[in-house]
Write a structure and sequence with these properties.
Layout: E1 6-11, E2 17-23, E3 34-37, H1 50-56, E4 61-65, H2 83-97, E5 102-107, H3 109-120, E6 125-131, H4 139-148, H5 158-169, H6 178-188, E7 189-191, E8 197-199, H7 207-212, H8 222-230, E9 234-239, H9 247-256, E10 261-265, H10 277-288
Helix pairs in contact: 2-3, 3-8, 5-6
Length: 291
């Protein structure tokens, strides 16, 4: 794929050099930018399809590599791998880039970071798209993610890397072809020092999860979600077969925030890639209503 973004770096409050893909807005009237934030073990490549489309609609898009992932520095203290620290990193980016307000697009952990921002500096959020996560999560899905996060993987070549991502994610994307799994692998692996693919994140991101134990499996972020959804537009995207955002939790969210937009992506689990027709059909009209 032709690179359609500029490389941007910024400095975290504790001195890390962090990275974002910076997609320039297509010409036209000025619109609020979009800040896209990925899930726990992923990176900015997850938005490589949707981000250029949003930029073409006239919005600048900043797609982050959260600390410890992708081209961002690994943190010397693994206990800083937590949503409140990630939220402070986002605020540092906004301050250094001169961005006062933005639309946030958060997948999984990125949605939790968006909720954390609503708690500590709500005025920066003009609107939010929350992709397949809620203020509480299904224990089964979080346990599945925790089971492989930070674990060593033997992948001497790209075929093995593709087989590994398929073994972890086939339940969410049963329609994927071998070519899809190869592309998936190239988003989440990079070539390591030994010349073979290695996962593109710091294994120590799992340290705070292990330290929290069972408490990590039942976070209560309902006050943060209520603050997020109370006074601004929110779109919730759910994978129809998601094991992290259950039907019950999604229904509870919709009851708590009756004005919130909602779309379910059929045949997909945790988490939609947002290149699905149903996801795009909800995202672009939603953005069209945001100044």
């Amino acid at each position: 794929m032709t690179q359609t973004f500029a490389d941007r770096r910024w400095t975290s409050p504790d001195g890390l050099s962090l990275y974002a893909r910076d997609y320039a807005a297509a010409p036209g009237p000025a619109k609020l930018p979009v800040i896209a934030i990925h899930g726990l073990t992923r990176n900015s490549a997850d938005f490589e399809t949707i981000a250029p489309l949003i930029a073409q609609s006239g919005r600048r898009v900043l797609v982050l590599d959260v600390r410890g992932r992708g081209r961002s520095d690994r943190a010397p203290d693994p206990m800083t791998y937590q949503p409140l620290n990630y939220a402070q990193d986002v605020l540092a980016l906004m301050d250094q880039a001169g961005i006062a307000r933005a639309v946030f697009l958060g997948t999984s952990m990125g949605g939790l970071i968006t909720m954390a921002l609503a708690a500590i500096r709500p005025k920066v959020i003009a609107a939010a798209i929350i992709n397949d996560v809620g203020p509480e999560v299904a224990k089964e899905g979080l346990a599945r993610i925790a089971a492989y996060s930070g674990q060593p993987v033997e992948t001497p070549g790209w075929a093995e890397a593709a087989a590994w991502v398929k073994s972890i994610n086939a339940v969410a994307f049963p329609h994927y072809t071998d070519a899809d799994w190869d592309a998936f692998a190239r988003r989440v692996f990079r070539i390591g020092a030994e010349g073979s693919p290695e996962l593109d994140y710091d294994p120590d991101i799992a340290v705070p999860i292990r330290a929290a134990g069972t408490k990590a499996l039942v976070p209560n972020l309902w006050p943060m979600f209520s603050r997020l959804a109370k006074t601004r537009p929110v779109l919730l995207v759910r994978g129809q077969t998601s094991d992290l955002l259950s039907e019950k939790i999604a229904a509870k969210m919709r009851k708590r925030a009756p004005k919130m937009d909602y779309v379910e992506v059929p045949g997909v689990g945790h988490a939609p890639m947002l290149d699905e027709p149903e996801a795009k059909a909800a995202i672009f009209p939603f953005l069209g209503e945001v100044d």
